[in-house]
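thought: fold this chain, then report.
action: predict
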Amino acid sequence: MDDTRWDDDYGTGMPDAEPSGQPETAGGEFDPEYPFEEPEQAPELRSQRSENLYSRSEPFWERVIELPAEGEEYPRDPNYWNHPEELADDRILQVESGRILDRLKGLAGSRALWIFVAVLGALVLTWVVIHNSFMQIKRIEVVGNTTVSAQRVIELSQLTPGMSTFSIDDELVIERIEREGFLRCTLVDVSFDKVVLHVRERMPACIIRHNGQTLTLDDRGWVLKVNNDLNADAGGLIEVHGLDVRRSSLGQAVSLYTPRRLTVYTQILIELKAMKGLDMILELDMTSMDSITLKTNDGFTVQLGNEGRIHEKLRAMLVVHEVVLEKGYYGSEIGGTIVVSDPTSPTFRPLSAQ
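observation:
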């Protein structure tokens, strides 16, 4: 039977050409100079091939392998798979060597890595220090208290043994202690495993009569006591007039319509306390801020004038007061007025000359 295969699909009645297995030239003949030439039947495939497909200029084509002697095998070239002398120039066979090692070296030398390592180390060190028993509270001491017990101050601070000294918030501790109203916390001294709380008890300094009540204040205007008797005795404290109180509450500073008055009030009382002259004052009248006056418990009236130069005025008052006492102007019947509105030129007017 004839082995010729007929083209039944198109009915041409022509036998298919037998493939030769070798590329042919445009004339149909095989050209050994172009071993990878596309057959004439598919010339469009040429545009899809690399430009270097037909090039024999690469070093690879120049390699010559000697044929073995008859009966022997081909010798294994040690550079068969890597041929280093060709890799330097061959565009097709060139590869990156040591790529992973190069990346690791580049990462080790990067600034970002060192910053990350430094931050991580700092966090670890901080955690170790915070949780180290050497930096935990073992003792809590209180300094400056007189009537309030140390235990009460510690309870107000909410500090307990075993707490890390790094976790102490000074401002928060001060706020907790001063909520009591009768205490002022001036310092939270933390040193390794010990905390010292420095406090000052708010001491009564004056009274004011307001809204049917007698309020006892300290030198910063904190309300220490509320007496519903408007005419209650001052108890040896200074009676202050002219504070335009807007709101008052036990354990808090009074609120004034004119906050500047409270500032001047505090300055006067603190200066008198520092000069040890607080006990000699009976009354403080701040009704007019341009004519602030004091009354002493030995019958003298002191005119300070406005709120300026309070320190100099009070110092001049004490000097003049001492002089007039030496001259015998003592007592309500023979007292007088000390004028220190100009502290550089204080004057005294005896009661008999007024």
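thought: worth noting. The helical segments are 84-87, 99-108, 111-130, 150-157, 170-178, 259-274, 310-326.
final: tokens above.
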